[in-house]
Amino acid sequence: MKAKKIASVLLLAGACLAVMTGCGKGSSNSSSGGSNSKEITFWNPFTGADNSNLKKMIDEYNSTNPDFKIKNVSLKEGDMYAKIPTVVNSGKNIPDLNIVHAERIKQYKDNDMLETYDDILADFSDINEKNYVAEAWKLGEIDGKRYSLPLDIHNWGTYYNKELLEKYAPNALEDNILTIDEIKEAGEKAKSDKIRGVAVTWVKPNVLSLMKQEGGQLTEDGTNPTLDTKAMEAALGTWADLYKEGVTTKDGEDPTQLFLAGKLLFFPEGIWMKNNIKDAKFEWGLTNSPQISDDPTKIVNWASSHQFVMFKNKDRSAEKTKGIMEFINWLRTNSLEWAKAGQNPATLAITEEAEYKEMPQSFFLNTPAEQASLSIFDYKYNGYVSEYLDAHGFDTIFGKVSIKDTTSGMQKEVVDKIKKDSSNK
Question: Tell me, what's the pLDDT at 357?
Fold first, then answer.
């Protein structure tokens, strides 16, 4: 395969960007060299607080004396994604097993970089769609073949200050659905007390969840983007209107610190933020991300997933592949430690754990309806959309750039990048 073809993968940003706690921060805790014959080299991007949870799981698994022990290699997210095409292209030091973000899988597959799990799955009957959250399981199957298996499904929601909720919106969460209208009403009441109603946080999940609620999608055919649309305008406009009406945090303010200081009512963020706010000196809760409608069948919560993949590697033996599957199968019923990191394991076995049921993020797996609300935007060129929204989204919400200029600019930039990517193949 041509180096420039593989290098094109690097353009695709992950679902979990540097803003996420535990992804792409810190430094590697292990050498990234090859493994010995009885060892599985496992690359992953967990270098933040969740790294200690990962190491505990691996240590526990290794203590069961498997035929192949796991060698943990946690790399900075950017470094890991830069190394992957280099080692796959060279054929040397390819990891035996890798965690990647869900949104990268289609491009890895299209660049012929992945092994499939189809043959080996026949020997591991418990690793099947009935035992995993549907949204996390289904994206691993492309063109009738399985290219990945899920570790978790992490999603967007809304943290809230229970004391402020009781004061400004006592009935808003009786149905566990927080609507834009309820946010506006509560925010107006809170203004006089210098309390912010809702935080402007990571634009991508805030906007994409609303875009889907408005009937929009990133693409209709899997390739060409559909971004300059009424649905995207409405999603961005909703947040811009909240800002104009003075119910959001302001440009330059730190939403996390405002929330911890008791000066913010609603804090849209990822479930992984639990460890950042768990020691707040007030009672807080977690519910769905902001919704347009209070219809429980129309809830949309942006989500992503960390997935196990095997990059093509002529040196990976059938015995080692079996060892990889034994590790993944063990995790299916031993994922509580990962939930302690603030994640939602994708295995449904976790929902039977008493300790897990007490965790705030378990709310999203409690019922089939909540599981169905989780939406992974697995568009092949999702990364290009992310790059644009990360660069321009805040300016749009804060009124520095028009909404129409943003949607048309995003459409043009993503189309141009796709053309450039195609010309490099």
Answer: 97
